[in-house]
Structure formats: C-alpha cells, structure tokens
Amino acid sequence: MINKFKLLSIAFSALVLSLGACSSGGTVTPSSSQPDSSQPASSSSESSSTSVHQHTFSDKWTYDEEAHWHESTCGHMVKIDKDLHTFSEWKETTPPESEKDGELTRTCTVCDYAEHKRIPQVGTPEKLSFIKSTDETYYSVKAKDTDIEGRVAIPESYEGLPVKELYVTYDENGRRTGAFEDCLKVEYVFVPDTITSLSVYSFRDCTGLKNVSLPNTLVTIGRRAFDSCESLESIKIPNSVTTIDYCAFESCESLTSIRIPNQVTTISEGLFEDCYKLKTVTLPNGITHIYEDAFRGCSSLETINLPASTEHIGSFAFSECSSLKLNKYENGLYLGKEGNPYFAFIRTSDSSKNTYNINSNCEYICEGAFSGCDNLESITIPSSVISIDYYAFNCDNLKNFVFENGSKLAYFGNYVFDMYGSYKQVICNEVNNGLYLGSEENPCLILMGIKDKSATTFSIDNGCKFINQDACRWFGSLTSITIPDGVKSIGRNAFQYCEGLTTVNLGSGVDTIQYNTFEECTSLTTIAIPEGVKTIEMEAFYNCSSLTTVTLPKSIEAIKSFVFDGCVALTTINYAGTKAEWEKVDTPDPNKWGDDIPATVIHCSDGDVAL
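The structure assignment produced for this chain is given below.
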C-alpha cells in the first residue's frame, strides 16, 4: 500500500503543476504523466501515474455590472484577470424628442460592458408657461395661451426642477381655470411621469382634443378634467389611478368605450353624463358605488357589467340609457349585477297594468320606475329594497303604499309620489300629529307631513328613519325640533318657512343637509351641524336672517354654493378640524358663499382661514 505521506506529496505536487499550467488564452494539453488537479488522487495500489489538468480560457471578456474577467472553457469554474470596469466619457447616443426620451451611453475601456442613462423628453416648452412653487422645489405648468394648437408635450423637468402639477388659475372673483381649459385647437397632450394628479378643469372644453397620453404614475383625475372634450374618441386610464372625480368625462360626445382601472371603487357623480356614443363600459370587481347621473344620457350604452360588489346606485345614474339591455320579471324590467339579475327596477314593461309584483331580490327602485302607471292603486315594497328614488311612484291613483316587515330601506328620495311633492292621494298613518308611511311593525318609517300646522310643538316618532321633502314646510308656529338619531335623511325644503323655529337639534344619523332645508327660518340664531354630516347642499340656510353662528364638523366634505345666501347676521363660522383639514373640503368660490354675510374667516381648531 502507498504510504500516506507519499500520497500527500504527490497531491501537493499535482496542485503546483496545475496552477503553473493555467494561461489566459488558447489551449494547453495536459501531460499524461501529471494528475488532473480537479480529481482526487487514486489510492489504488494499481495506479502507477497521475495526470495534471491544465485549464483553458476564452479570449473574450465576460462581465457583470461591476467587473470583467476571462472565464475557463474547460468546464471548470475558474476565472482569471478579474478587474473593475474603467469607463469612457458619457456620449449622447439617442437625442431626446418632444415626447420620447433620449439616451446617454458610456462603455468600459477594456470589455464591451456599457451603461445607459435616460435623457428626459424635452416637451414643447414654447407652448407652455411654468410657475415655480413657493418653496422653489418644483414647477407647475399651464398653456401659454388658449391659441396653442396641435401636439403638446409637457416636459418632466424645467430649468433643473421637476414639473409636478397642472396649474389652476384663480381670477379676481375666485373662478378657477384649468391648465389647458378652452384650448380649442390642441389635438394631443403628453403628460409625463412626474405628474400624479390631473387638476380640476385640466382639459375642460378642449373641443379639438383627440388623444391624451397619461403616465403610469397617475393617481387622481380631477373633477371635470375632460368635461366637453367632444372630439375625444378613446382614452387609456392607467392602472395606477384610484380616484376619478365627478363629471370628469361629462359630454365627451365622441367617446365610444372606457375601461375603469381595478383600484377605482366608485363611479362618481355625472362621470360619463351625456357621452351619447359610449357603447361599452368595463367596470372592475371592486366597484361599490355608482353615483348620481353617472351614465345619464348615454343613449348608446347597451350593456354594463355591474360586479357583485355594487352596493349603491344614485339618482338618474342610468336615466335616458335607452339602449340598455334589461332583465324582465313579470311586468318589470331590471338591471342586474353579478349574482342578482333583479338588482335594480328600472321601469315597467307595460304602464297600463293595475298590479305589479316587485321581485323579492330587488334592492333599488329607480327614478320614474312606475311613473305613469295611473291604474295602480296598491303596491307592497319588498323588505329587500334599500332605495326608492325620485318620481318612482308618480301614479295618479296610488292609495295604498305599504312596506313589508323587516324593511332594509336606507334611502327615500325626494318627490317619490309627485314631481311637485304632493302625496295627498296616499293613505298615511296618523301618529301624534305626524303623517307617516311604514310597515305593520313600524308604521312611522317615513314622516310625510303634519296634520295640524297650527300646533306649537311636535315630536318626531323614534321609529322614523326618513323625513320626506316638504314634511314640515310652512309649519310657522313650530319653535323647536329635535331630529332623532335614527333619522337617516331629511328631504329638501323639509323645514322651509318655519319662521318661528329658534332651536334645531340634528341627530347623528344624517349625512346631508339638502337644498333649502331650513330656508327662511328667520328666527334661527345658531346651528351646530353634527359629526357625520358630509354635505351641505345649495341654499340650505337661505335667508336665515337671524343666524349668527354656525358650527361645522370635521366630517364635512362638501359645501355647495350660496349655502348661507341672505344670512345677513352671520358673523361666526366654526370648524372642528385644522386649517390643513379645511383645505381638503370642497367649498364654494369665495364670492359664492352667500351675498351680504359679514363672516370673512373660518375659525379652525388651530387658527383662521379666509372664507
């Protein structure tokens, strides 16, 4: 047997010979008397000789992002001549264009490795104006004037700073003008990656606009951004978009199809109103709310895929969609959603009938659904129904209007029985001077009106969930009213002309103060809007001439125009949130809060802001 020390000596000698045989190119043939250093030495007594493998290497360089080397070609993982890259100067290999990036390149002086840098597209700055931010960290951009034409490309940077916003201009009266509003001759706009939001009115009334390139960084499309872009035939909304504000595509008369990105959960108010060539709409599975007028006037719309997640359809959302294919059940035509073909009752198939059975899976009775069914005298509303909209039962002879027990009703619209607010033909339940509609288990579900308006006091039943429009109108002797927390909505004009009303305690269940709700309540001096209210509609407190103090909650999201018009004593408006939170509230232009109001500031929790 070979001595262990002799074996070690042979192995060591073979390793030395192997290292000595390595070269940087070409092929070296190993000697038959030398052992292959990559194989273990034989321990067999029959082995009389050992060969040494000599590596061979490619003449070409191998490289990664950091270094280069020569790699073995003999099947072994061996590298030689490894070193870091050394580079030449950067050279412009592709010049930038108005809408297309250019490129800089530098190469390693030893191997073929190259690095590349993007040169941002240069845009069309000659057609644009740039406004530096107050902190001098970025630019906003707008059209140089409304006469610019053709293709417009916004650069991602200007004078070394990023271009991040589309500029909104305010005139002396507070009217806002979008960045490219009224640019009638612009046909195409390129928006760079640095812009994440399209501001309000961005391209409003750009009647010649045919195409827009939006970046994959875009998150928000502001209200009326493309309003009345009547030549816009198609638009690709990036998947990055999460919010599309109201009326963003209203009156885009040439738009034929649209796909809503997956992260969008609501179709906002009037979003596609009067897009009368719109034929195809693709909604994502996460859509929950379709708000008022969303597709109103889309007369070419044939189908729409409401996902199972759809919870809400606003008033007139599908009004005047005359081509929309509906599902029939008995004498009713329904718009379905995934899993429920009878989701929303749109209209009757025959208005001459005197009996109609609403499907037990129906959740929405849409505006005008039974309008003109003048032979209808009695109807039962299934417990599944959560919304009854405007003019739904504008039927001359309807007398009996009853809800099933266990009603899930969450919304009762204005003017359900008559476009002028009348309900006189409908038989109501009389409870403590109130006239109500309801079910057997809750006869006071909806306060329709007051029997005797000469009374000085009135208490709303605790079972009441809805106060109908005009319910307490002209109740001039009423001095105080408390709205129970269970009330979900108060209809428009509900307390209009209650001239003796001095105290109003609003419950926590209301989220909207509707149009003219407290108009001409001339004795009302203070009002505290409770937390939970999100919207105060136009002229809600019109001519409340004694009103001195209003307190607004942090929950408020929108205050519409002329809400305090004629409130000549109003000196104090308090807001429970901070100044920063107030800036996010959708408020009227400065001259549209109301004529002749003395108040000039909003008192926030951390200071004042101008009205």
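Interim note for the steering committee: Residues 4-21 form the longest helix (18 residues). The chain is about 5% helix and 30% strand.
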